[in-house]
């Protein structure tokens, strides 16, 4: 396959940008509290340390930084970090956590990576990483990531993912759009790098997440997830809420997510 063919195949399938921002605002509370990851409990930090991917003089960009977990984790290893995210609530919490952990070399900014004017970021960072973020959702956003880096890029993506509740809701609404497209994104990313002459490395880690959400928060989150790829009717929204009411236990909805995390890294 030629490079232009990959670019034409890997496009953003989301149809509702507002739903994306609402989704991550609604999920922000669940990301607000965290322990700083280390090489003992994070493949991302382990690979960075073992391969000296970040050093003390580096400027680092964190795309889709969320509540700042990984920006904070690498802040002591580099000169400075810039974290960007589409969610204003995530950015608010990230600033609060940086202050709490006394990390003064991080700048968090509310930005939509897909629509960001790269002029102010092109070749501005020694290291650019995107950890488990949907911000890298097309060939365009992926290649923009490469253009922002002077040396190293790192991308972590969930693959082979199953969500016990979200998958059932999609089937219920006849949405032929499972998490299989996550696998495609990894393959497209590797193919773009290979065709551009890079030799990327890949590491893997299997993970299982047990997620507990209050019923009202679950209704908000799952409805916004569906709205990313489908314009739903009020009846379909009611169907989602009724299903969640049926499976809720003591006012909470429980979901099990199984996935293989793929960590792709390369020098530009």
Automatic annotation (TrEMBL):
Protein's UniProt keywords contain Methyltransferase: yes
Signal peptide span per the entry? none
| One MF term in the entry's GO annotations | methyltransferase activity
Q: Which SUPFAM superfamilies match?
A: S-adenosyl-L-methionine-dependent methyltransferases
Pfam families attached to this UniProt entry: Methyltransf_31
Keywords, A to Z, come to:
Methyltransferase, Transferase
User: What is the name of this protein?
Assistant: Class I SAM-dependent methyltransferase
Q: Does the keyword Cytoplasm apply?
A: no
Origin superkingdom = Bacteria
- Methyltransferase domain location, by residue? 55-156
Q: What is one GO biological process annotated to this record? A: methylation
């Amino acid at each position: 396959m030629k490079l232009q063919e990959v670019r034409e195949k890997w496009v953003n399938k989301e149809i509702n940008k507002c739903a994306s921002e609402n989704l991550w605002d609604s999920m922000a509370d669940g990301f607000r509290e965290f322990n700083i990851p280390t090489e003992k409990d994070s493949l991302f930090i382990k690979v960075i340390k073992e391969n000296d991917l970040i050093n003390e003089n580096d400027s680092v960009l964190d795309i889709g930084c969320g509540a700042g977990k990984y920006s904070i984790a690498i802040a002591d290893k580099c000169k400075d970090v810039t974290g960007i995210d589409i969610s204003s609530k995530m950015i608010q919490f990230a600033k609060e956590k940086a202050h709490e952990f006394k990390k003064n070399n991080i700048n968090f900014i509310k930005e939509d990576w897909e629509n960001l004017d790269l002029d102010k970021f092109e070749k501005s960072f020694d290291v650019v990483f995107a950890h488990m973020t949907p911000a890298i959702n097309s060939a365009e956003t992926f290649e923009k990531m490469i253009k922002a880096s002077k040396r190293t890029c790192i991308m972590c993506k969930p693959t082979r993912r199953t969500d016990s509740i979200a998958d059932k809701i999609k089937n219920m609404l006849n949405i032929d759009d499972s998490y299989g497209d996550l696998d495609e994104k990894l393959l497209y990313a590797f193919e773009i790098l290979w065709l551009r002459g890079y030799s990327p490395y890949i590491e893997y880690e299997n993970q299982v997440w047990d997620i507990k959400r209050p019923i009202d928060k679950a209704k908000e989150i799952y409805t916004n997830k569906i709205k990313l790829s489908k314009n739903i009717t009020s009846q379909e929204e009611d169907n989602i809420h009724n299903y969640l009411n049926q499976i809720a236990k003591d006012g909470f909805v429980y979901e099990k997510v199984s996935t293989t995390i793929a960590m792709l890294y390369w020098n530009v």
